[in-house]
Specification:
Elements: H1 3-17, E1 27-36, E2 39-49, E3 52-57, H2 64-72, E4 79-84, E5 87-88, H3 92-96, E6 99-102, H4 114-124, H5 129-142, H6 158-170, E7 176-180, H7 188-203, E8 207-211, H8 215-221, E9 224-229, E10 232-237, E11 251-257, H9 260-267, E12 273-278, E13 284-289, H10 292-305, E14 310-315, H11 320-331
Parallel strand pairs: 3-8, 3-9, 6-7, 7-8
Antiparallel strand pairs: 1-2, 1-4, 4-5, 9-10, 11-13, 11-14, 12-13
Helix pairs in contact: 1-5, 4-5, 4-6, 5-6
Length: 335
């Protein structure tokens, strides 16, 4: 090992073995409204978000992305103010070192390897080369991507591209991590590993803000849930066992895989599955289940057996508004 590589490893070990230094503070929305011309984004939002995992839940167009973009300073409120750990969000330079943001957009600079993708981000934002190398190694290790670090990102699977974006978001060790649908496209095992990473980051003191449509995962990993509808925060607090109470609203899931017919045979062994049908391109399977936890355990077993290659899993609920309406009705008081 060269002297340079030894220095990088030493610095990386220091980073990996240290806790994130987080000031005990909050993300604060103070009577915030955002309008796009005459179109409402969010209206009269008052929130105080502490450390841990907070999930934003709501149908498309509810205002979740607007809230996330207000936290990062990408949007300015029309009325009211947003501060993040005591920093006003109209100060982008001060915000950068505090915030990591992982969007849904699956696009990358052409020709970069995973290592270059992360390191270039750190260099642009003022880290010297040696520190950037060490932070890059740490981020790759956290997401189990070190073996793929020197491959082109363009050759990564969808799940690996999702993970490299997450690695970039945590590379500079932010205090706040904002994640827009971070579990989409991940296979069951990687999904479980990623949720475990979120819990580890939260235990280290981070604020994680996660947008998700997969309700059983929101319930499983969140310390707090914020329900958003038509630009308003309609409820907030702890929500446990939501999917267990919702037998009248089965979850619909689309699994992309190489042998959907064979997967269907496994699926029909589950009593909780009420429907399974092939996607029209015959490379996917739609499943409706009343017990999401049991179904995801089944998928884990299928992946472990190695007979079926599962490429991705995504919610396909046409009835998300009805599910969401149930949540509001069940927990409507808020806090």
């Amino acid at each position: 090992m060269s002297d340079s590589e030894a220095k990088i490893k030493t610095e990386s070990d220091k980073i990996r073995n240290s806790k994130f230094e987080i000031r005990n503070s909050e993300i604060i929305f103070d009577d915030v409204s955002k309008f796009y011309g005459e179109i409402l984004g969010v209206n009269r939002v008052n929130l105080q978000i502490g450390p841990g995992i907070t999930s934003l839940v709501g149908p498309n167009g509810a205002g979740k992305s607007t809230l996330m973009n207000l936290m990062t300073g990408l949007l300015r409120p029309t009325r009211g103010s947003v501060s993040l750990l005591g920093i006003p969000t109209d100060k982008p330079e001060a915000l950068f070192r505090k915030v990591g943001y992982c969007t849904q957009f699956d696009s990358f600079p052409r020709g970069l390897t995973g290592r270059e993708f992360i390191k270039s981000f750190l260099l642009v934002h003022g880290f010297d080369s040696q520190k950037a190398d060490a932070l890059t190694v740490t981020a790759l290790e956290r997401l189990n991507l070190l073996d793929a670090a020197d491959r082109k990102v363009a050759a990564y699977s969808k799940g690996m591209r999702q993970r490299i974006r997450l690695a970039q978001a945590i590379a500079h060790q932010p205090a706040v991590l904002i994640l827009d649908e971070p579990l989409n496209g991940l296979d069951p095992m990687v999904r479980a590993e990623t949720i475990a990473l979120f819990r580890k980051l939260a235990a280290d003191g981070l604020h994680l803000i996660i947008s998700s449509h997969i309700l059983h995962e929101v319930d499983m990993m969140s310390d707090r849930v914020v329900l958003v509808n038509n630009g308003y925060v309609v409820a907030e607090g702890n929500i446990h066992g939501v999917r267990d109470e919702m037998e009248e609203q089965p979850m619909q899931i689309l699994i992309r895989c190489d042998k959907p017919a064979k997967l269907a045979a496994h699926v029909f062994d589950e009593d909780s599955v009420v429907e399974a049908r092939l996607h029209q391109d015959r490379l996917g399977l739609f499943v409706r289940t009343r017990d999401a936890d049991s179904f995801y355990l089944l998928l884990n077993r299928v992946v472990a057996e190695g007979e079926i290659n599962i490429e991705s899993i995504a919610p396909a609920d046409d009835d998300l508004n009805a599910v969401y309406g149930y949540l509001i009705g069940a927990e409507g008081g808020g806090s």
